[in-house]
Design goal:
- With 130 residues, the protein is mainly alpha-helical.
- It has 1 helix and 2 strands; from the N terminus they run H-E-E.
- It folds into 2 domains: 1-58; 62-128, Type Iii Antifreeze Protein Isoform Hplc 12 (Alpha-Beta Complex), CATH 3.90.1210.
- The protein has one helix spanning 2-57, and strands at residues 62-67, 82-87.
- It has a two-stranded antiparallel ribbon with strand order 1-2.
- The longest helix is centred in the first third of the chain and has 56 residues, at 2-57.
- The chain starts with a helix and ends in a 43-residue tail after the last strand.
- The relative contact order is 0.12.
């Protein structure tokens, strides 16, 4: 009888151990599933934030004429001196020349550096700039 009782206790311990193992396994799976859900939500929030920032950065740009190379004061502008470049509206300087204006043949009043926006104030007589 003593031996039978000892075997029963071993079996009971094995059953309890297995039950604990199953319970721990279930709890771990629940914890992992919860973490996955939280990570997916965080990833979606991050994607939405990045998308919103991307849209904010895609502000409509404005085209203006820039000097394709340095143009010295008193120079008659030729086509090769001019290029079109896009800028955000807040970076357009007052008097910047839009691309539809033909400035070929106009004399410069002052030096215009390469890449600089071409301003009406740096060109010949204002009536020459149309």
């Amino acid at each position: 009888m003593f031996k039978h009782n000892r075997e029963s206790k071993k079996k009971l311990l094995i059953v309890v151990g297995m039950a604990c193992w199953i319970l721990v396994s279930i709890l771990i799976q629940v914890h992992i599933a919860d973490k996955k859900i939280k990570l997916r939500k965080e990833a979606e929030m991050f994607r939405q934030r990045v998308a919103a920032e991307t849209v904010a950065r895609q502000v409509k740009k404005v085209q203006v004429l820039v000097a394709a190379r340095s143009i010295f004061s008193g120079t008659k502008i030729v086509l090769e001196d001019v290029a079109v470049r896009e800028f955000p509206p807040e970076h357009i300087k007052p008097g910047a020349i839009p691309p539809h204006v033909n400035i070929v043949g106009v004399i410069t009043r002052s030096h215009i550096f390469e890449g600089e926006q071409i301003l009406s104030t740096k060109l010949g007589v204002p009536s020459e700039v149309r």
